[in-house]
Amino acid sequence: MTPPRKLHIKSYGCQMNVYDAQRMVDTLAGEGFVETANADEADLVILNTCHIREKASEKVYSELGRLRVMKDDAVRQGREMKIAVAGCVAQAEGEEIIRRAPTVDVVVGPQSYHHLPQLLKQAKAEGRALETEFPVEDKFGFLPPPKPDAIRSRGISAFVTVQEGCDKFCTFCVVPYTRGAEVSRPVTRIIDDVARLADNGVREITLIGQNVNAYHGEGPDGRSWPLGKLLERLAAIPGVARLRYSTSHPRDVEDSLIEAHRDLPALMPFVHLPVQSGSDRILAAMNRKHTADDYRRVIDRFRAARQDIAFSSDFIVGFPGESREDFSATLALVTQIGYAAAYSFKYSPRPGTPAADMREIVPAAEMDERLERLQNLIDIQQSAFNKAVIGTTVDVLFERAGRNPGQIVGRTAYLQPAHVMASPDIIGKVLPVRIDSLERYSLLGELAARHAQPQASALSQTAIGA
Ligand code: 5AD
Ligand code: SF4
User: Fold this and answer.
1) 210 lines ligand 2 (CB under 6 A)
2) What is the SS3 assignment for 157?
3) How far is the C-alpha of 162 from the C-alpha of 35, rounded, in Å?
4) What are phi and psi of 35, to 5 degrees?
5) Which end of the chain is more exposed for a tag (fewer CB within 10 A), N or C?
6) Distance, CA 165 to ligand 2 centroid (Å)?
7) Comparing C-alpha atoms, which of 59, 82, 87 is closest to residue 70?
8) For 228-243, how does the pLDDT look when each residue is reduced to its tens digit (9 = 90+)?
9) Highest CATH level, class, for 393-465
């Protein structure tokens, strides 16, 4: 019997890439590949790249330089090592990668992962590097369903893609170009995936997509289902304790989603709703298709439906033409909303996007200063949010053993890590935990007898404290 071939995937960027890496592992398992954590012993190394910000493609080329040395070593030892570049840099740069880095055997974009086995065979047979053609229409392809073992080893929480791509065309963003047009998966396929995961011990499902609340997949009734209706159906699957979804666009928050938050206890009250800026002028230049007040109203709708709901967001500072007043409007919005967490980035021009041609560049020093001010404000809000949990009892879904002996780690509804000393039997269960203290970003506590109350007090304090 031939020994299994070893596969190493290095992923950068978003959850979608993490999920895609799993899809590639599943696809290549059918070809006899098993995953390894060590690139230097792999028969196939895949760089799963991200193109969203900064000098992502430069990072890929320097990583490829390191891999070339590894590949040469492997050849000297009489082994073969194939190198594939996947992800959004692969999509954006295509053949250019093979020209600049001849060590690469295959370049494959996110819409074509199901062609990977065939591409690898072809590259081998033809003795040359190959690039895929990225056919959009078969985006979700015919990938094999994940194997139960593979699912189990992924633990208690899993991602399921429900849509891919984006039609919003924010002027700073490469996603509509690299991930293509918005496509939603049919409801029954998603139900099947979630049921299979739940049967194999997964308790928390995060529905993912670039613009997940634009979901409009075909339902079993032949109609197009919105995200809220899909969530309602998935909440009825036995074993599903928690549901989440990410990332959402403020323009696409339909009433059915708000109602799902009102009606479904399994739907976690923590929503990632990027706003990018608090200035209407900048939001218009970004082509966000909403104002700061529109965003405030969306937040109010969520809060009216579920009082313990909390939000996270993404922000870009230093978008071309962003004045001090524009930036102040962002700080004002953050202060008013009160976030449990948020990510903020310096604007970086992405080749081929409309904003890359905009002239009014914000000086680097100014951008640094704005980023620091915004991050400080967000840190204050986040730590107030976390501190407010101390002394309360909250529900925790336990996921795995901790680093210290006897310690089990889980997450609260707001994805805060929580540690208790307990038997590993609690893994996979949602149990109330009395929180005693906070160490950096982790909560420490003890299993409690009574059931948790919503963390409403934590939220109101955060909003005021900000
Ligand atoms: N520059 C800086 N940040 C960006 N993002 C997307 N494109 C850019 C860019 N060109 C950020 C946005 C988005 C998150 C995933 O990445 O905030 O919500
Ligand atoms: Fe990019 Fe999100 Fe805008 Fe789509 S909605 S273009 S993914 S920032």
Assistant:
1) yes
2) strand
3) 25
4) -80, 145
5) N
6) 9
7) 82
8) 999 999 999 999 999 9
9) mainly beta
Torsion angle, alpha carbons of 260, 233, 185, 294, to 10: -10
pLDDT band at residue 465 under the 50/70/90 scheme: very low
Q: What is the pTM of this model?
A: 0.83
CATH of region 5-135: 3.40.50.12160
Give the C-alpha separation, 180 to 178, whole Å: 6
Residue 134 above 80 pLDDT? no
Q: Spell out the domain ranges in the chain.
A: 5-135, 145-268, 393-465
Q: How far is CA 247 from CA 167, 260, 273, in A?
A: 14, 16, 7
- Identify which of 82, 92, 6, 1 has the alpha carbon closest to the alpha carbon of residue 47: 82
CB 396 within 8 A of CB 430: yes
Pocket of ligand 1 (CB under 6 A): 52-53, 172-173, 274, 276, 314, 316, 345, 347-348, 350
145-268 fold: Transcription Regulator spoIIAA (3.30.750)
DSSP letter (8 states) at residue 128: S
Residue with tokens 């049967």: 199
Q: Is 77 left (phi over 0), alpha (psi -120 to 50) or beta?
A: alpha
